[in-house]
């Protein structure tokens, strides 16, 4: 349910239930989590590229999995979040390596919010982001209530979440929810090239950069300055820093090892 391929330091994870618009069943949850865990543990992985197979990126939870017409007690969706979505969200955000998301088509519900949680998000011009939750009586999850409010502010976050109105890729870029919208035909080439160039980058420094930027919203300036000091100290001891400066002085391109 998740295709996994490692090339040029990029671990590509392709959500692969295209006939269901890559909506999540248990197997796909576990496969995505396994892919992210591998990205964390395997030194050969220096960037992740997340995308979807077929015409959609991800339609959130597979709603066929819990058909209320079949009766029985109401399912505990809090348990579903804690057991399946939240571990993957935490892995995505804490992974000390860049995660590029190529949103190849519609991203709905938790699918939209998983995309938004990635570090650099490119979307096909035809893609749309839909906070579909309100249509079925749920609330934004997979970090959406946090990221939408933080990135967009309350007015846009509330309107998107309460109306479930589709947000086209270009508008999402205009609003700063994603990095950019690109032509459908060039999405995968562009996203793969970006992931490849990040994978050839100073991985340790990029990982620290990610943590710094993610910490900014909860830190005071003083705390953030302290954190920059500590991260820069660490980056300054890396082989990639020495290589970066050497390459600059020698007027050549650096060859980073990620160390
Ligand atoms: C689907 C789905 C789907 C199953 C398309 N499930 N089959 C967390 C905790 C626990 C539980 C609940 O949820 C959550 C988080 C969530 O993610 S809640 C939000 C769940 N997602 C949605 O509400 C979105 C449902 N899907 C849609 O609204 C539409 O499919 C969108 C707007 C994404 C795309 O519309 P279209 O382009 O018109 O495609 P379609 O609706 O025709 O879908 C194509 C096929 O995919 C279709 O199957 P079929 O056999 O008829 O061809 C759909 O039934 C299936 N599909 N999403 N979430």
TrEMBL record:
CDD domains: crotonase-like
Pfam hit, one: ECH_1
Alphabetized UniProt keyword annotations: Isomerase, Plasmid
Keyword Amino-acid biosynthesis among UniProt keywords: no
GO molecular function: isomerase activity
Keyword Oxidoreductase in annotation: no
Family matches, as InterPro entries: ClpP/crotonase-like_dom_sf, Enoyl-CoA_hydra/iso, Enoyl-CoA_hydra_C, PaaB1
Domain of life: Bacteria
Family: Belongs to the enoyl-CoA hydratase/isomerase family.
Protein name per its UniProtKB record: 2-(1,2-epoxy-1,2-dihydrophenyl)acetyl-CoA isomerase
Organism: Paracoccus methylovorus
Phylogenetic classification of the source organism: Bacteria, Pseudomonadati, Pseudomonadota, Alphaproteobacteria, Rhodobacterales
Gene assigned in the entry: paaB
């Amino acid at each position: 349910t998740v295709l996994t391929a490692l090339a040029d330091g990029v671990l590509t994870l392709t959500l692969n239930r295209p006939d269901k618009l890559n909506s999540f069943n248990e197997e796909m949850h576990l496969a995505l989590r396994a892919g992210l865990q591998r990205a964390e543990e395997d030194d050969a992985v220096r960037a992740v590229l997340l995308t979807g197979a077929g015409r959609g990126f991800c339609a959130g939870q597979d709603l066929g999995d819990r058909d209320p017409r079949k009766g029985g007690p109401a399912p505990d969706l809090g348990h579903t979040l804690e057991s399946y979505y939240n571990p993957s969200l935490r892995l995505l955000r804490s992974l000390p390596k860049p995660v590029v998301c190529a949103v190849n088509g519609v991203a709905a519900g938790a699918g939209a919010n998983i995309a938004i949680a990635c570090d650099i998000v490119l979307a096909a011009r035809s893609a749309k982001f839909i906070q579909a939750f309100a249509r079925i009586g749920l609330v934004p999850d997979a970090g959406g209530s946090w990221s939408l409010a933080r990135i967009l502010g309350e007015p846009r976050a509330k309107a998107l979440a309460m109306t479930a109105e589709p947000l086209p890729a270009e508008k999402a870029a205009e609003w700063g929810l994603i990095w950019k919208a690109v032509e459908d035909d060039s999405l995968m080439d562009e996203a793969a090239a970006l992931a490849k160039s990040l994978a050839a980058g100073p991985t340790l420094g990029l990982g620290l950069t990610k943590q710094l930027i993610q910490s900014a919203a909860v830190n005071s300036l003083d705390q953030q300055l302290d954190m920059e000091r500590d991260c820069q100290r660490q980056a300054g001891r890396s082989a990639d820093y020495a290589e970066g400066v050497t390459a600059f002085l020698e007027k050549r391109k650096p060859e980073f090892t990620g160390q």
